[in-house]
Design brief:
The complex is a heterodimer of chains A (122) and B (288). By secondary structure, chain A is α/β, with parallel strands linked by helices. Chain A has one domain: 2-Layer Sandwich (Nucleotidyltransferase, domain 5). Chain A is built from three helices and five strands; from the N terminus they run βββαβαβα. In chain A, a hairpin with a 4-residue loop joins strand 2 and strand 3. Chain B folds into two domains: 220 residues, P-loop containing nucleotide triphosphate hydrolases (Rossmann fold, 3-Layer(aba) Sandwich), CATH 3.40.50; 46 residues, Alpha-Beta Plaits (2-Layer Sandwich). Chain B is built from eleven helices and eleven strands. Chain B has a nine-stranded mixed sheet with strand order 3-6-7-2-8-1-9-10-11, with helices on both faces. A two-stranded antiparallel sheet of chain B has the order 4-5. In chain B, helix 1 crosses helix 11 and helix 5 runs parallel beside helix 6. Chain B starts with a strand and ends with a helix. Classes of the chains: A alpha/beta (122), B alpha/beta (288). At the A-B interface, helix 1 and helix 2 of A face strand 4 of B.
Chain lengths: 122, 288
């Protein structure tokens, strides 16, 4: 299966990014081949709706699960519609979270924040 | 003559200033553009209130007609559309109702539907016409309501009008001051107040609007907002003292100029200064 994670850098040693919609990159890890690659998040520079566009990228890359520290309501709606499961990261390193996920030690993300729309300019 | 009253944060005195200036004038219009929490009507308690709904047009999709080309998804600058499992999903609250997706769809799978986002109320209180915009709870942007409020009052632009703006310097404020002939910046006498004054100062400079400042809650001693005005060469139109008498009148939702001669004199004098400033601007900068 394919796992997506918002990350700060294009490196296997990268940390998880605190933001989903505006993360600079996504790491896509394939649990079968144990290979990973990085996607640039074109939504990061959006004027608005970054979460929706970022989620579309995750869907289009056929990920089965997303590991993220948090996610907004609209992005979560897109992922739910695509049956992509969301799990909450518990440590900084992206790689460590993948290991935890494979060991079945990450919980489903149950807190969805209402988004940041309209704060400071809509 | 349209005068917008704005400040970098809430609670500075925009409503105090705009309500009292409107009430002290011979004939005026008061427009409450603070559509997320309009409170001017609490002071005016207008009679004969007429209400009309404000709606926007948002896209709706017929997925049977959609061929999955995604032109709409790619077009939307605000990312209000997603394409998941061969269906277009619309995020109405992100939509900025430009109508572009409907135009661009080659299969006519998208059409527009009306969505009510709030209302405007118009009534009168003495010689003041009171217009209030109310945004429904949970809606993201009050801009369409502000547009409607200003449009409704445009035929009366010769009547002295005070526009009570939302706090801050975001889009809703820009929309509120767009047609203003003059801006009043209301500031508090604190370092924080100066920070907020600076935000709206930069906004009115950007919009090339003539403006002046009213310093509210003034006490004896140093006033950082006054210092800022002097440094930036901003005309100080008037100062309102920090007094429990005024606080009490305001807390009881009463209009100071209708309750006390002292405040009637204060705001009459402020109104004259504002009128002179606007007149001066109109004659010295006719191109504005």
């Amino acid at each position: 299966m394919k796992i997506a994670i918002p990350v700060d850098d294009k490196s296997v040693e990268t940390n998880v990014c605190v933001s989903f919609g505006r993360a600079p990159y996504f790491m896509i890890y394939d649990t079968d081949t144990k290979e990973s690659f990085f996607l640039e998040n074109i939504a990061a520079s959006s004027a608005g709706g970054a979460g929706v566009k970022a989620a579309q990228t995750i869907v289009d890359n056929k990920a089965d699960a997303l590991l993220t520290p948090r996610i907004g309501e609209n992005a979560a709606d897109v992922l739910r519609a695509a049956n992509i499961k969301m799990y909450k990261t518990t440590t900084a390193l992206a790689k460590a979270n993948i290991d935890l996920f494979i060991a079945d030690k990450l919980a489903l993300l149950d807190e969805i924040h209402p988004g940041f729309h309209g704060r400071g300019g809509n | 003559m349209r005068v917008a009253v704005l400040s970098g944060k809430g609670g500075t005195g925009k409503t105090l200033v705009s309500v009292n200036l409107s009430a002290v004038a011979d004939k005026s219009i008061y427009i409450d553009c603070d559509v997320e929490e309009p409170n001017g009507h609490l002071f005016f308690k207008p009679d004969g209130v007429q209400e009309q709904e404000v709606s926007i047009k948002v896209p709706q999709v017929d997925n049977d007609l959609c061929n999955g080309c995604r032109k709409c998804v790619d077009f939307c600058k605000f990312n209000a559309l997603a394409y998941i499992k061969e269906e277009v999903i619309v995020f109405e609250e992100i939509c900025h109702f430009c109508g572009g997706c409907v135009l661009i769809c080659p299969n006519k799978a998208l059409s527009e539907k009306e969505r009510t986002i709030g209302k405007i109320q118009e009534g009168s209180s003495g010689q003041v016409k009171v217009s209030t915009g109310i945004l429904n709870t949970g809606e993201a942007s009050g801009t369409p309501i502000i547009k409607k409020l200003l449009e409704e009052n445009r035929p009366n632009s010769d009547i002295l009008t005070f526009i009570d703006c939302p706090p801050g310097s975001a889009c809703v404020v820009m929309e509120s001051i767009r047609d203003a002939d003059y801006c009043i910046l209301v500031a508090e006498p604190t370092v924080f107040g100066v920070h907020n004054l600076d935000m709206v100062y930069r906004l009115v400079k950007l919009f090339n609007k003539p403006f002046g400042a009213v310093l509210n809650k003034c006490l004896e001693g140093d006033n950082p907002a006054l210092k800022y005005c002097l440094d930036k060469n901003i005309k100080v139109l008037g100062q309102i003292p920090f007094e429990s008498e005024l606080g009490k009148i305001n807390s009881n939702a009463e209009i100071a100029v209708r309750k006390s001669k002292k405040y009637r004199d204060l705001f009459s004098s402020l109104l004259e200064t504002v009128k002179q400033e606007v007149h001066h601007e109109a004659t010295s900068n006719p191109e504005r």
